[in-house]
Amino acid sequence: MAEADNFFRDTPEPPNFVEKKRKIEEFVARHSNGDTPVVLVTSGGTNVPLEGNTVRFIDNFSIGTRGSASAEYFLEHGYAVIFLHRGRSLQPFTRHLPQRQLLDILEVQTGASGENQLCVKHDQSKTLFAVVEKYQKVQNEGRLLMVDFTSLTDYLHLLRASSLIMDKLGNKAFLYLAAAVSDFYIPRDKMPLHKVQSSNGPLQLSLELVPKMLDALVKNWVCSAYVVSFKLETDPNLLIMKAQQALEKYEHQLVIGNVLDTRKIEVVFVTNNDEQWIKLEQEEIDTGVEIESKIVTSLVERHRQFLNE
Amino acid sequence: MAEADNFFRDTPEPPNFVEKKRKIEEFVARHSNGDTPVVLVTSGGTNVPLEGNTVRFIDNFSIGTRGSASAEYFLEHGYAVIFLHRGRSLQPFTRHLPQRQLLDILEVQTGASGENQLCVKHDQSKTLFAVVEKYQKVQNEGRLLMVDFTSLTDYLHLLRASSLIMDKLGNKAFLYLAAAVSDFYIPRDKMPLHKVQSSNGPLQLSLELVPKMLDALVKNWVCSAYVVSFKLETDPNLLIMKAQQALEKYEHQLVIGNVLDTRKIEVVFVTNNDEQWIKLEQEEIDTGVEIESKIVTSLVERHRQFLNE
User: Fold this and answer.
1) CB contact A56 to B (< 8 Å)
2) Residue A67: per-residue pLDDT
3) pLDDT for res A203
4) Least C-beta-crowded within 10 Å: which of A36, A102, A152, A308?
5) Nearest-CA distance B249 → chain A (Å)
6) Contact at CB, A119 and B116, closer than 8 angstroms
7) B135 touches chain A (CB under 8 A)
8) CATH of B2-92+131-224, one of 3.90.1170.40, 3.40.50.10300, 3.40.309.10, 3.10.180.10
9) Nearest to A59 among B57, B107, B202 (CB)
10) Looking at the complex, does the CB of residue B223 fall below 8 Å from at least one CB of chain A?
11) CB A145, CB A81: distance < 8 Å
């Protein structure tokens, strides 16, 4: 625990930290009474700067597919969602918009009043209607809060702040920790100030281990919440074992294990009691079912049981 | 030169390489006759994988602001543009679309025919009209080709391929190398296959220097083109010297020097003959003038003179 405390003492707070905490406080307060459960969905990768005046980072493969899709399904199940995500990574709803082709699908039309307006071409509209309607409903109900981070230290400060604020929700709080968090970093006092020069020849980097925060989260920050973490491996032989180790170490509710290459079609839920594989059938793959819909449906049921304990 | 050749021999070609080369060939062929100059604008950062089954990368700060803005100004000056950019980084035209707020500015309207359609809310439309019109004009004239890369090796293979194809354009070819290219990498045979485990303790990384390709580009790939490279530093005291060193080493036409913190308001053009600072006046900053408009206007004039030599 001292390790976690030292980390927060020795690292900078994220930009706009006070404002972000205020918004999270206000959102949680609005959903404190009543039955609406609140989920913190973390999404996307954290980066680790290599220089003080940062030109280079260590980053990871995650673009937020898992988290952004899952957030939509939690919203469909009636949850309020705090979406703590890597800036510029995928987000619920907007992830369905074609980045490039957006300008190809807009056209100037003459509206009913005779004025020019920009509209989505008719043949492209249908798919977008549903997205826009869902999004605007969720906005009107005030059930989605977007908070962004970039670096590892931004993320951990915001994770701790969010967790501490959500503690008042008791077992109504759900933590879905899908963000890909850096395991290694360079402490600020060991980082070079300026851009490392290639004229100095080959580069040696020494990276220290990031303290494992899940311990402090489960035991100190949100003691009654339903906490789900992820374990991603590239070697399938390590998967179940690493998931079980995490569960034993942190004593939270569930670890979702997945292998890099197959993560979009199968995951395994590891709890104290069971190991449950969730897989997409071929027909589901063919019809575009997202595995996150099945993941979240199962988790919502598990949370419901947890709430009734 | 042997170093560059070995690099290409020892590194994988990018995905869809044959298709991408075909599109570049076709684009250049279409603009070979006539007066339209063709610029290769490179944009965004390259990443360097740290594992064979890649979970982690070294990446850099660049999101393609310089390149995407510059591409638009080259298009305005009548150039055909090959936009060789980091996938998911900023692109010409779409960079003006608000990612998040896009769903806030669309609404369902009833069209003239009584049908529902998705349109941009009236008060948001004006700014977007100009963008959509410019984009669609450029598309109709076939003057913009988008080619994407992700890793350092993707980028260098595509840079070489594009340059070799553009060689037939002689001095009509302009290379605007704004991409932030990794200086360091891990050769494939020195990379671990699987995700590095944090249970192994602190991490030591050894990175080798990437061969400087500008030499091969200027002397072998596009010998008659107008070549502009960038030099970014965090320490202003190094800027002019490093820019001059690059120019002497590679013998191309111009180096644009910029300091990380001030790159959006000032740059310096370094040539054999002169050092010319291009800066935004306070009034220009206040009215949203982009420095790239001034950069490109100056470069287009220099290219015009180069064409007349």
Assistant:
1) yes
2) 98
3) 85
4) A308
5) 13
6) no
7) yes
8) 3.40.50.10300
9) B57
10) no
11) yes
Confidence of residue B309 (pLDDT cuts 50, 70, 90): confident
Closest partner residue to A99 (CB to CB) among B47, B94, B203 is: B94
Q: What is the distance between the alpha carbons of residues A21 and A18, in angstroms, rounded to a whole number?
A: 5
pLDDT in tens, A233-289: 988 999 999 999 999 999 999 999 999 999 999 999 999 988 999 999 999 999 999
Cα-atom radius of gyration of chain A, to the nearest Å? Answer: 21
- Per the structure block, which two tokens stand in for A35? 């039955």
Structure tokens that stand for B300 in this block = 């287009």
For chain A, the domains span: 2-92+131-224
Instruction: Report the gap between the CA of B276 and the closest CA in chain A (Å).
Output: 24
For residues A147 and A84, is the Cβ–Cβ distance under 8 A?
Answer: yes
Q: Given this model, what pLDDT does residue B101 score?
A: 67
Question: Which of 202-221 (A) contact B at CB < 8 A?
Answer: 202-210
Q: Which residue has the higher pLDDT, A118 or A276?
A: A276
Express each pLDDT in B69-88 by its tens digit: 999 999 999 999 999 999 98
Q: How far does A55 lie from chain B, in Å, by closest CA?
A: 5
Would you say how long chain B is, in residues?
309
Query: Could A103 and B97 be called an inter-chain contact, meaning their C-beta atoms sit closer than 8 Å?
Result: yes
Nearest alpha carbon to residue A95 among A66, A115, A75, A123: A66
Q: Does B191 touch chain A (CB under 8 A)?
A: no
* CB atoms closer than 10 angstroms to residue A33: 7
Mean pLDDT within A157-183: 97
pLDDT digits (tens, 9 = 90+) for B122-138: 777 777 888 888 998 99
Q: How far apart are CA A65 and CA B270, in angstroms?
A: 43
CA-nearest of B136, B65, B59, B57 to B96 is B65
Q: Residue type for B73, please?
A: Y
- Reply yes or no on whether the pLDDT at B4 is more than 70: yes
User: Residue B145 contacts by C-beta under 8 Å, 6 or more apart in sequence?
Assistant: B23, B24, B27, B80, B81, B82, B83
Dihedral, CA of residue B19, residue B24, residue B29 and residue B34, to nearest 10: 160
Pairing of strands B226-233, B254-259: parallel
